[in-house]
Amino acid sequence: MKEPRIAAEIAKQLQKFHQVDIPGSKEPQLWNDVFKFLKKASVLKFEDNEKQKRYEMISFREIQDEVKELKDLSDLLHAPVVFAHNDLLSGNLMLNDLEEKLYFIDFEYGSYSYRGFDIANHFNEYAGFECDYNLYPDKDVQYHFFRNYLSDRPSEVQEQDLDALYTETNTFRLASHLYWALWALIQARVSPIDFDYLGYFFLRYGEYKKQREFCFSLAQGFLSSLRSG
Fold first, then answer.
1. Which of 26, 67, 136, 195 falls between 20 and 30 A from 117, CA-CA?
2. Which of 55, 182, 189, 175 is nearest to 113 (CA)?
């Protein structure tokens, strides 16, 4: 996905996808879903004693505080609300080499949400199935994506527009980690799939905490610069 030609095509297709008009409520669902996940995740019981011990290590008061603080910060960015895919990992992209066409598939998590969340969620998936978050794209790679997302003439995109989308995306980067961390906790209790969902929670929440200071500082600095003109 990081290969420049492919990344540019994904960006162009995602921009078109975000223009889709779906009948019904246009209210963003992200934070509704996160708070629902948090409520369900905080009252689980595991039959396996080892799983229960690991589960009891989690501070849901801390997570609730983090969710509220991140929501308040992201609200200040006034990110556009679009119809989002919300699960744009490599397995949900199909590339037809003969026709040189790219297709998005699997829309079960699709909903109206924030533009930056959909892009950040995709960038987090650069980690691959090995979940190596060191593969998260650097600023230059992100700007290449943004240029192709924002305009049919990528070279003409203004620097301030790139900076704004960079801030928006990397603020919602944190929301992506919280969303899938809480989702994983629920799956740890209900899913029949043989996968360490509890471990996945700790991985995603750990990455949230690792990236928190950078992402919060980025957003706060950007908002401060807007206020100062």
1. 195
2. 175
What are residue 219's phi and psi, to 5 degrees?
-65, -45
The domain covering 4-227 belongs, at the CATH homologous superfamily level, to Aminoglycoside phosphotransferase (APH), C-terminal lobe (3.90.1200.10)
User: Measured between alpha carbons, how far is 45 from 189 in angstroms, rounded to an integer?
Assistant: 8
d(CA 6, CA 104): 13
Q: Read off the tokens for 49.
A: 């004693």
Q: To which residue do tokens 């934070």 refer?
A: 31
Report domain extents, the chain: 4-227
Q: Which pLDDT tens digit goes with each residue over 5-17? A: 999 999 999 999 9
pTM over 0.85: yes
